[in-house]
Amino acid sequence: MRQAFKYISKADGSIQCSIFFNPPDGKKASLLVALHTWIGDINKKRIYIRSDFHGPNNKPAATGSDLVVNDIVSAVEYAKKNADVDEKKNYLIGASGSGHAALYGKHP
């Protein structure tokens, strides 16, 4: 679920704005903090994909394999068919095991 919220900065007491995406099932989840670009702000329109991509990175099929690369390509194609995607602004971020897939670099 997406919700906008404001909070008080501990640094200077100013009011800051943010957007929060929370899974609807209410279970504990990992946290991704996405920093905006130099000229961006939180009001930029974004489309977000998070998928299993052949599961946890504890087997060869999930660690930047051709299967994972093609899973990512398929997910991007799905997003392009089902949302208004800006073709000039597509980004891939990853940390830990997903960083491995992001660095794999087999597809533009």
Describe this structure in words.
A hairpin with a 6-residue loop joins β1 and β2. The protein has one domain. The protein is an alpha+beta fold and 108 residues long. It contains two helices and two strands, in the order ββαα.
Q: Determine the oligomeric state from the structure.
A: single chain
- Beta-strand residue fraction: 5-15%
Show unreliable segments: none
Number of domains: 1
Helical proportion, percent range: 10-25%
Derived from helix and strand composition plus strand pairing, the structural class reads alpha+beta
Number of strand elements = 2
Quick one: overall form? globular
Average residue pLDDT:
75
Strand order of the largest sheet: 1-2
Helix tally?
Answer: 2
| Distance from first to last alpha carbon | 30 Å
Q: Tell me about the biggest sheet?
A: 2 strands, antiparallel
Encode the helix/strand succession as letters.
EEHH
Spatial extent as radius of gyration? 16 Å
Topology:
Layout: E1 2-8, E2 15-21, H1 66-82, H2 97-104
Antiparallel strand pairs: 1-2
Brief characterization of the structure:
This protein is of the alpha+beta class and 108 residues long.
Write a concise keyword list for the protein shown above:
alpha+beta, globular, 23% helix, 108 residues, two-stranded antiparallel sheet
